[in-house]
Amino acid sequence: MTGEDAPLTRFAATRFSPMRFDPEHVVTDDQVDVLLRAAGRAPSAGNAQPWAFAVGRRGDAVHDRLVRHLARSSGRWAPDASLLLANLSQHLVEDTDLEYTEFAAYDLGQALAHLTFQAHAMGLAVHQFRAFDRGSLTTELDVPRHWQVTTMAAVGVPVGDVHEGAGTTRERHGIDAITWVRDGRAGLREPS
Amino acid sequence: MTGEDAPLTRFAATRFSPMRFDPEHVVTDDQVDVLLRAAGRAPSAGNAQPWAFAVGRRGDAVHDRLVRHLARSSGRWAPDASLLLANLSQHLVEDTDLEYTEFAAYDLGQALAHLTFQAHAMGLAVHQFRAFDRGSLTTELDVPRHWQVTTMAAVGVPVGDVHEGAGTTRERHGIDAITWVRDGRAGLREPS
User: Fold this and answer.
1) Is B117 on the interface with A (CB under 8 A)?
2) For the segment B103-122, what is each residue's pLDDT rounded down to a tens digit?
3) Which end of chain A is more exposed for a tag (fewer CB within 10 A), N or C?
4) Does ipTM exceed 0.90?
């Protein structure tokens, strides 16, 4: 895969966010450990590692607590996944208004991406979402104000594929539309 | 790699942020396209795709413009990389104070992670950094207030490895320290 003709990786080419998960598949405790380790190895500004995860395996007590705070939309598909995560970012230093890191959300996003790569290598897929009650989940998880429940994610074995309407992989902008400026190429700004 | 004994992927196990790049290596225009396509295929909230990239290949005019705004620290190593990127996120709707997406930084972080994963499959490595003059680079790139130059990244072939002090792969928290709550396991909060 080195060289000029490098294609997109299989991961980049085929990843999608499932909306149907196998409700029988069980993720093992060891697999969860590996997923968390992969997330935790993401880079972060100043190595701040401003992330933490509430981890519910389908059927366990934490899973029950997470499911209660799903929106109606996510409540239709996310509980079937083998694993539900609430993804927290630390943006302030405890008991202060001082910024802990400017990159709390940015770095958490990266950690989820690293978890997603790892999941794919294990035959699993990930669907991140915001369709949950942040206020009530913050209370449920006893989250102090220097942390935020930023997103949730469902992890498991997809049923069907994206072409069957079982997931979301939406149209993407072309390269020009995500290029700010680049020599000899179109972008949102002309080269000066 | 499926199943209970799944190890960390090679990517997760070996990735590091180089601080020395091969100053002779050239990344092709096609390779840059693939990297941008991989970044652009990252998931984003509502498919907002709130990202854009200023792209400088070593020696070209955009590269020269980016290099001028590096901090002294990053100026020592980043210009040697084959590719310099300024990574922009769109947080507001143009000409308004309305949020374009709550997840501008989070999603940009994911896009960089996807670019990093693609780069590794191509024999390249990525070092993201904040050591640049945001104000002057914002002016240089004619960035309006609904966008932000959030980070920069250097992409190329690492020289040496992390054990030779040629990169950063720092200590990470253990799983317990990034677990908020999990049944039967230690975390930052006890299961209730």
Assistant:
1) yes
2) 999 999 999 999 999 999 99
3) C
4) yes
